Structure formats: structure tokens, C-alpha cells
Amino acid sequence: xxxxxxxxxxxxxxxxxxxxxxxxxxxxxxxxxxxxxxxxxxxxxxxxxxxxxxxxxxxxxxxxxxxxxxxxxxxxxxxxxxxxxxxxxxxxxxxxxxxxxxxxxxxxxxxxxxxxxxxxxxxxxxxxxxxxxxxxxxxxxxxxxxxxxxxxxxxxxxxxxxxxxxxxxxxxxxxxxxxxxxxxxxxxxxxxxxxxxxxxxxxxxxxxxxxxxxxxxxxxxxxxxxxxxxxxxxxxx
Length: 237
Prior knowledge:
Layout: H1 3-6, H2 9-23, H3 31-34, H4 41-58, H5 65-80, H6 87-123, H7 130-153, H8 161-174, H9 176-195, H10 200-236
Helix pairs in contact: 4-5, 4-10, 5-6, 5-7, 5-10, 6-7, 7-8, 9-10
């Protein structure tokens, strides 16, 4: 009996994925080395859909949505890095993220209700300054949502939510194109779910995957920039 055969099915799958990651020929851009789990495209697609279903379950109370985004992003990040991704770990991440996520979820939910109320009052002509006020409140609400989503996507076990919320504006400034991609992903997800509500379940998984992809892109770009800056400084000296 081989070593893999003696393993549990879950450990055997993880071992095979790590073995394929070591033996596959790297792409020209090195993407297989960075994200070996993403090489299995169909498996990745299935994992994204599965994570969407898990996120939908966690998001049922509404105020828990930041924990769902945090756990979903963390789960897919492990998958693309060819690490073990048991369902139990997703729910453990959810439990770890909940203490700080509940406050963020409650605040953003209350802000969303306020924005909806202002828009309704503006549409009915009961709000002074109507359209301008509704636009301003909507813009503030959208900005707060984007910052909260970025903070949730940056979460990892042991990271305080206060720190995530504090650094998310800096992340926005450092990666404006990534922030634009995040806004587009949120807008497309909202449109798809609005057109056919059941599609909101896979949309959650696709949103989590988009956040992971944007985060990995940001890491690659900032690392390359740091190396370039370091090389320039060494050349100057």
C-alpha cells in the first residue's frame, strides 16, 4: 500500500494537488507557480460555486455578510494556493471572523436602510434637495460598502477588524485600478442578482473569487514595484 493510499481521502487529494503543482511545467509568467490550485479550471469553477452556496448560508442573517466574504475569500485563496480546503475550515473561519464582522455588518446594513429610505423620499418629492441629497447619500453608502468589502477580503485568522478598516483606505489609494475592479465586480453582481434572484448564490462565490484575484494582482504589482524601487536605490548609490 502506497503512502497516498494510506491517507484519508481529503489528505490524499491535497497531496495529489501539491504533487501536480511541483511537477507541472510553469507558465511563461510563472502563474502556475504562484497559484497552482488555479490550474484545474473546472475544479476551480466548482469550488467557486460551492463557496457561493456556503456564503449564502452564512449571510442569511444579513449582518453576517462581512464574515461570509472573509471566510469565502480565505477559502478560495487557500484553494488557488493548492492548500487543503475542507468545508469545516470555512465555518471555522466564519466563527473566527464573526466577532468583529457583526459590527461592520450591522453598520453597513443600517447605512443601506438609510440610503434606501432617502432615495424613496427623494423619489416621492418629500426630501428637500431631492436628487442631490439622494445622490450624495448613495455615494457615501457605496464608498462605505466598497471599503467594508475590501476590508473583509483582506481578513485572515487573527487579524483585528479595526486594523482592516484602518488600512482599507490606504489599499484603495495604493491600488486605484484594483478598487475600480472591485466596484465593477460589485455592480455586475448586483445587476445579475437583481435580474434573477437565485443567481445571487453563485454570484457570491464569483465575487469572492474576484476579490481574491484582485488581491493577488495587487500583491504581485506592489512586490514588483518594491523590487524596482530597491533596485533603483541600489543603482543610485
